[in-house]
Amino acid sequence: MRRATDPPAADEEQASCTSSEPLLKPDASGGDTSSHTTSTWWARSSRRDNDNHTRPKITPDCPRWMTARRDFYYDEKLMRGLKSRCCARLGLGTLIFLGLIQLITVLGGLLIVFVPDGIHRITDKWGQLGHIGQGLSSWPTDFSRGILPIPCHSHNDYWRRVPLYSAIEAGCISVEADVWLFREELYVGHSLASLTPNRTLASLYIDPLVQILEKQNPTTQFHPDGNVSQHGVFDTVPEQSLTLLVDFKTSGSALFPYVLSALEPLRSRGHLTYRNGTQTINRPITVIGTGNTPFSLVDSDLANPHHDIFFDAPLAAMWEGLPGETSTPAPKPESLVYGADIDASLPDGSASEREQQSASGDDMGQGMSGAAQSPDAYTSENSVYASVSFAQAIGHVLYGKLSDSQMNLIRGHIRGAHRRGLKARYWELPFWPIGLRDYVWDVLVKEGVDLLNVDDLKGATKTDWGSKTGWWS
Predict the structure, then answer these.
(1) What's the CA dihedral at 351, 352, 356, 358 to 10 degrees?
(2) Where residue 90 falls among pLDDT bands split at 50, 70, 90?
(3) Is the pLDDT of residue 319 over 60?
(4) Which uninterrupted H or E stretch holds 385?
(5) Distance of CA 370 to the CA centre of its chain
(6) Are strands 242-248 and 280-281 parallel, antiparallel or unpaired?
(7) Is the dihedral of CA 440, 338, 379, 385 positive or negative?
């Protein structure tokens, strides 16, 4: 048994040191310190912490070093809690401040919308009855106001919800109509199954173009002869001609005179581009025959007396290397099937049959019906476009990039077409993935192709696809 004079044991010393009292005691009146009205918020927070954490009492039996260590521990924990709360409140205050700024900005924008200033009140009400500019908001030729023409071709235009007008609205300078001859009527459609009695070349294209051009060339006291200046469909560039690419689907030789006759409403009003023997006279509408259109009839003074139907020449046959370059790329079999080359590729005994088909203008496809014996026969006197299928002449784009040989083909095609005064066009371009399509478009435009064959009008005219660096971007 321990005597009273013996020093306390270690566990007793520890017990005496762990006995504690609150760091902040209630006031003399017995009230809680948190009730003091003079305390600040951080002081009140400190008191709440001290209610939960107590410091050891200093007693004669407790070593001073142990008391100091406990004080340091509790003070450090108290400060950490205080800093955490300060940061949280600072962050919350910042968010509230930024939210107020955003709210003020939105309210300011709404104020401008509902309470416009002077200039906005004028522009919003311009031309309306009882406001500034009454009767001045339109003019006779505002059909295509604000539309800028761009070098794109509306492929299979008749498929669109609004044929012709959708292409003009997008700014396309060329539209395509697939034409079929049945019972002396010209129907428009992609296949036999899609034909309907009311969708004809006249109803979808000829008659609307006549109406548009009559509106663009009004007869007024300032303009007594509406056909003198011959404004085209685009009010922003009146001299821009709109190309009507007529794709002959049935027999070309049978179809040709009917197409020639169907164009009379445009011809009689002086709207068709034509060749006068020495030069091409540009007019609001330029008609080009493609598909089974026979070149022999287009180039004939008898079959095409007005010389207002032009030809879509075979681009693949026009490949040319650089000056001094003797080697040619190895083309795909489809890419140079033309004229004498066709005869050489046919089995024995087929050459004479091919000559008979060519001479009669039978259905040989784009650029091949009634074909000339030399690509130099296609000039600006009888042709406007030089076209070919991209898939057949250039091939697939492997690994997302055109190869050197494919680029050589493209450059040679464009070089040969331009030397003959023709506009190069590729059809059957890749359309998916979208990035790959945009990449091919970008390459063709940069290489100098004259017309972009498109199905997606919005993608071609509204999207900044030219800024892409590769099909993956």
Answers:
(1) 20
(2) confident
(3) yes
(4) strand 383-389
(5) 38
(6) unpaired
(7) negative
Q: Which amino acid is at 15?
A: A
**pLDDT (average), residues 107-122:** 69
Q: Is the peptide bond before 224 cis (omega within 30 degrees of 0)?
A: no
Task: Categorise residue 230: left if φ over 0, alpha if ψ from -120 to 50, beta otherwise.
Answer: left
Side-chain half-sphere exposure of 459, counting CA atoms within 13 A: 17
Nearest Cα to Cα of residue 465 among 441, 430, 448: 441
Residue 441, SS3? Answer: helix
What is the Cα–Cα distance from 266 to 368, expressed in whole angstroms?
28
Question: Which residues lie closer than 8 Å to 274 by C-beta, 6 or more apart?
Answer: 280, 281, 283, 306, 307, 308
Q: Where are the beta strands (DSSP E) in 273-382?
A: 274-275, 280-281, 285-291, 309-314
| pLDDT (0 to 100) of residue 63 | 58
The 8-class DSSP code of residue 432 comes to S
Q: Which residues contact 321 (CB under 8 A, 6 or more apart)?
A: 327, 328, 412, 415
Phi, psi of 423 (to 5 degrees): -100, 125
Q: Yes or no: say if 153 and 176 are a contact pair by the CB < 8 Å rule.
A: yes
How far apart CA 398 and CA 50 sit, in angstroms, is: 74
* Tally of residues, the chain: 473
pLDDT above 80 (res 68): no
Higher pLDDT, 180 or 360: 180
C-alpha angle with apex 385: 182 to 286, nearest 5 degrees?
A: 65
From 312, 285, 287, 305, select the one nearest 213 (Cα to Cα): 285
Q: Identify the CA nearest to 429 among candidates 412, 416, 410.
A: 410
Secondary structure E strands in 274-393: 274-275, 280-281, 285-291, 309-314, 383-389
Q: What residue type is assigned to position 274 of the chain? A: Y
Q: Are 445 and 470 in contact (CB under 8 A)?
A: no
Coil, strand or helix: which one is 455? coil
pLDDT band at 315 (very low <50, low <70, confident <90, very high): very high
Strand, helix or coil for residue 471: coil
Classify strands 383-389 and 423-427 as parallel, antiparallel or unpaired. Answer: parallel
Highest mean pLDDT among 31-35, 81-85, 240-244, 373-377: 240-244
What are the φ/ψ torsions at residue 287 (nearest 5 degrees)? -100, 130
Q: What is the mean pLDDT of residues 74-80?
A: 71
Tokens representing 411?
Answer: 């450059």
Q: Which amino acid is at 266?
A: L
Examine the pLDDT at 359 and tell me if it is beyond 60.
no
Q: 130-147 pLDDT, tens per residue?
A: 777 776 767 777 888 888
What contacts 209, CB < 8 A, 6 or more positions away? 164, 233, 242, 244, 266, 271, 285
For residues 291 and 381, is the Cβ–Cβ distance under 8 A?
no
